[in-house]
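tokens incoming
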């Protein structure tokens, strides 16, 4: 018997079709984990993936041969890739098979921090979609918002609400992702503390909480809308039993996701409603424990009439013309002294979300107008919407890291170099702003973001 895996967990799993207790325990006794990244196609033409093995179910996911110190890679800070556990990237495959990328959606990622799946949704949903990335725990929202700023999409709103707050938005979203807090057994190989904390009682508490989160948030899903439910737990109580409960009590109908048999993903069927679920076991594939199931809402769902929402037309002001690639694709609004942009056509959504929820960030903060000019915001430096002709100060790796430490950059006496506001960049990808003055360069990297000296 394994010294590591709680016997009660294995006993229950042993009853599942396709589960191999010996291989499961053996893989947990091995040292060394798997590192994988998912590249940002909006930025990452400078990440060399030629020699990397691809994650089978995600075209932008790659395994790394070893884990580097990501803090020392400027491209990591620039949002060129996200370090994400490979099994979770299956959501990219689900989006494609369920045709969720074929038309613009309003999508809600309900349990979103630190942002792995939100950045994935940004990449894989239709580009004209609106993503609401929500996180309940206040201390985790900052990381979520920062990771989404790095990813650079303008069509995202970050909220900090209890799932029940979404009851005020009945029938509003086309797609709901609930990546639920769980007992965490799927992460045992990476997080040894989770083993000590695991108990059958904790599984039952998680299962109850998952039902509560789903029941509270499901009214915001439209009739015919799609729910993706996932956990990093192996427990049936948190997976297949939740799937049956969704069909029994929440008006949901299961949907299958075609998979390639060679990937090693185990398809299970829930006991009562035969809901297909996709289980990831580390002894069967290169990834950690994960479960995903998809559903369609078949129960009637009332929704509020968005046509009654009054909005003001606010074109992006002239001051933004030189800063944005397509300034007429956006409308602008203010948050305090700052100007933000969201894609045109989302005016009513912003109004609705502002009225009903606590917003941590909305669209892209572009800067602060002052004396007819713009003091650019850091978020604009990382945004995919920025003007391609903005001046760049190209840094080598040493100076890029010095910039990220918020250190001093030497004045560069290049008469043809940029003057005034410029993007400090590494391998052509912006890291943040500098101001080039005749005798010095001012470093505008946010102090809360600076990296420690290693
Ligand atoms: C599995 S993690 C989400 C990981 C994230 N989706 C990602 O891919 O990076 C679950 C999240 O649910 C949040 N959470 C905890 N309790 C919650 C509750 N009662 N309702 C909603 N979310 C909760 C946690 O703070 C955590 O950020």
């Amino acid at each position: 018997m394994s010294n590591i895996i709680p016997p009660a967990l294995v006993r229950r799993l042993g009853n599942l079709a396709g589960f191999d207790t010996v291989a499961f325990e053996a893989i947990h006794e091995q040292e060394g984990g798997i590192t994988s990244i998912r590249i940002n196609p909006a930025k990452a033409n400078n990440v060399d993936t030629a020699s990397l093995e691809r994650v089978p179910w995600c075209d932008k996911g790659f395994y790394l041969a070893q884990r580097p110190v990501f803090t020392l890679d400027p491209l990591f800070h620039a949002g060129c890739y996200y370090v994400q556990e490979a099994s979770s990237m299956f959501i990219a495959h689900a989006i494609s098979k369920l045709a969720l990328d074929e038309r613009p959606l309003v999508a809600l990622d309900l349990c979103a921090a630190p942002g792995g799946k939100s950045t994935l949704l940004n990449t894989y949903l239709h580009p004209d979609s609106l993503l609401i990335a929500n996180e309940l725990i206040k201390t985790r929202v900052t990381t979520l918002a920062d990771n989404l700023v790095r990813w650079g999409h303008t069509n995202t709103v970050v909220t900090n609400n209890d799932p029940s707050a979404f009851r005020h938005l009945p029938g509003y979203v086309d797609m709901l992702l609930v990546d639920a807090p769980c007992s965490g057994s799927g992460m045992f190989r990476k997080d040894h503390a989770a083993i000590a904390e695991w108990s059958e009682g904790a599984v039952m508490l998680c299962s109850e909480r998952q039902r509560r989160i789903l029941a509270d948030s499901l009214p915001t899903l439209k009739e015919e809308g799609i729910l993706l439910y996932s956990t990093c737990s192996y427990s049936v109580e948190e997976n297949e039993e939740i799937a049956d409960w969704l069909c029994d009590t929440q008006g949901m109908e299961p949907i299958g996701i075609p998979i390639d048999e060679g990937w090693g993903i185990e398809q299970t069927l829930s006991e009562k409603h035969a809901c297909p679920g996709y289980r990831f076991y580390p002894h069967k594939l290169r990834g950690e424990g994960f479960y995903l199931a998809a559903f369609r809402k078949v129960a009637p769902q009332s929704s509020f009439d968005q046509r009654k929402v009054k909005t003001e037309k606010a074109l992006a002001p002239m001051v933004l013309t030189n800063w944005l690639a397509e300034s007429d694709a956006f409308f602008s609004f203010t948050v305090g002294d700052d100007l933000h942009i969201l894609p045109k056509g989302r005016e009513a959504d912003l109004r609705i979300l502002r009225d009903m929820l606590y917003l941590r960030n909305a669209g892209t903060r572009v800067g602060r107008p002052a004396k007819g000019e713009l003091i650019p915001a850091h978020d604009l430096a990382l945004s995919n919407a920025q003007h391609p002709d903005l001046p760049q100060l190209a840094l080598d790796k040493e100076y890029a890291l010095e910039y990220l430490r918020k250190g001093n950059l030497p004045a560069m006496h290049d008469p043809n170099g940029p003057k005034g506001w410029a993007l400090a960049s590494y391998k052509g990808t912006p890291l943040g702003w500098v101001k080039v003055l005749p005798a010095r360069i001012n470093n505008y990297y946010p102090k809360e973001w600076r990296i420690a000296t290693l």
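note: The radius of gyration is 23 Å.
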